[in-house]
Amino acid sequence: MGDEKVKNDALQIIGMFQLLPRLVVFDLDYTIWPFYCQSRSKREMPSLYPQAKGILYALKEKGIDMAIASRSPTSDIANTFIDKLSLKPMFVAQEIFFTWTYKTDHFQRIHTRIGIPFNSMLFFDDEDKNIQSVSKMGVTSILVDNGVNLGALRQGLTEFSQNASRSEKNNQSWQKYSQNPNSSEKKEEIVYMSDS
Ligand SMILES: [Mg+2]
């Protein structure tokens, strides 16, 4: 499947959803490209997973911001590869540094830098520990098996819109309750403590 075909398929998938993330964050190694960049030389010409480019271009065309969160210990190689692949203009933030935490620092920095709330973000990564810790921050996080592809995109957007509509419902019922607590269908019992 060529890049253009993947991009069109991705556009079609994105078009099926009303609630979309404001930011999509990608890991690098084994998520957008099939290797650890620490084991490669800067002189090489890297290649992406076959559907990665089409997906990035489709998100860009839809006006959805994108960022990188990578724990690679060789950020110089990662940056060189991103340059060589002409991907730098695609990303509003690139956090590439090694930590012992599982990307919570990366997401905190991305959030501080661009101000998008965690629950408006969608994240793709191939490591379960990153997925677990970042999803606890409220980010919809998708474990990829064989790099980012159309299936992962569809799954990500599906889970994102489920999470978003769930939190919207919670918000609405909370607003309803706080505006008029007595008439709420979700009556809460008030227990009066006797002080005697
Ligand atoms: Mg990875």
Tally of separate helices: 6
Output the CATH topology. Rossmann fold
Q: Which architecture does the CATH hierarchy give at level 2?
A: 3-Layer(aba) Sandwich
* Widest sheet, order of strands: 3-2-1-4-5
Describe the largest sheet. Answer: 5 strands, parallel
User: How much is the radius of gyration in Å?
Assistant: 20 Å
Structural class: alpha/beta
Overall shape: globular
Helix fraction bin: 40-55%
The CATH superfamily title? HAD superfamily/HAD-like
Number of domains: 1
> What is the CATH first-level class name?
Alpha Beta
> What sequence of helices (H) and strands (E) makes up the elements?
HEHEHEHEHEH
Q: Give the strand content.
A: 5-15%
β-strand number: 5
Integer average pLDDT:
92
Bound molecules: magnesium ion
- Contiguous low-pLDDT stretches (5 residues minimum) are 184-196
Distance between the termini: 77 Å
Biased composition (Polar residues): 164-183
Region (Disordered): 164-196
Pfam family, one: Acid_PPase
GO molecular function: acid phosphatase activity
Description:
The model is unreliable at 184-196 (pLDDT under 50). The protein contains 6 helices and 5 strands. The longest helix has 30 residues, at 150-179. The protein is globular. The chain has helices spanning 3-15, 52-61, 75-84, 104-114, 128-136, 150-179, and strands at residues 23-26, 65-70, 93-96, 121-125, 140-143. Strands 3-2-1-4-5 form a 5-stranded parallel beta sheet, sandwiched between helices. The structure holds magnesium ion. Magnesium ion is lined by residues 27, 29-31, 125-127.
